Fold this sequence. Notes:
Layout: H1 6-14, H2 18-40, H3 43-60, H4 70-91, H5 94-102, H6 114-135, H7 138-149, H8 154-161, H9 165-186, H10 202-208, H11 222-243, H12 250-262
Helix pairs in contact: 2-3, 2-4, 3-4, 7-8, 7-9, 8-9, 8-12, 11-12
Amino acid sequence: MTISDPDEFIQKLKNREPESFALLYAAYGSKVYGMAYRMTGNQADAEDITQETFLQVYRKVEDFRGQSQLYTWIYAIAKNLCYRYFQRAKKSSFAIFEDLIYSQAEVEPSELAAWEKQKLIRQVKEGCLTGLVRCLAFQQRMAFILHVLLQLPIQDVAEILDKSDAATKVLLHRARKNLKRFLCKNCSVYDPANPCHCGDLLGFSLQQGWIKRPSSGEKNFPEAQQIEGEIKRIREVVELYAQLPTPQPAQDLNHRIRQLIFEQEGAIFTRKKV
């Protein structure tokens, strides 16, 4: 699909005419996705980059001065997002997470009471789960949290993420597959024959400051608590809408959830990985 009058079209974009952005995506969406996929080699990340590219175009179109072709400007935005992807990938991925676990030094914790050891092991498990979920690409992570943890119907998750039902099911399948692949290979909680044992990580995790020895009655791992709080807020909104005397349209609930997810920078509702 081509744009016949670029100057007029750009003005329509700046006027925030919805049909102009639909035409923009139809004209350039596949090109941006193709470039992102070639650079990342990952379909889910390419989808995320494509979506973020057009979100940035929407937010920044007023800054476009016509000093280059429109697609050249869009391409530069997408390319910068790909570079940011590589910077994040250096710090965070399932492979990096795995390397971190197995590169841990042999550090023996000082003598621990049984209750203290159990609390520390719980911290390690919570931290591992947090790390694994955050290693997922943003769209996979959101689909997993909304459908699996919050038990929202596929149709609602698709609307919240602005995806088709089929695309949302694909995201869920990939999220489960990525998590299962890691757990099947590494986690002794999942399979006792696997090499990674929570108890073996206590000394190293204490030394790094990732966990801390608990005071009596103290609940630890603040990041896990923050994540629980973020998910709890959405769960409370879902429950509130379910209890209203007059049923509200599903779109109202989905819009509210979108606000909670995309208008805050939290521990789990963030486009960043670990």
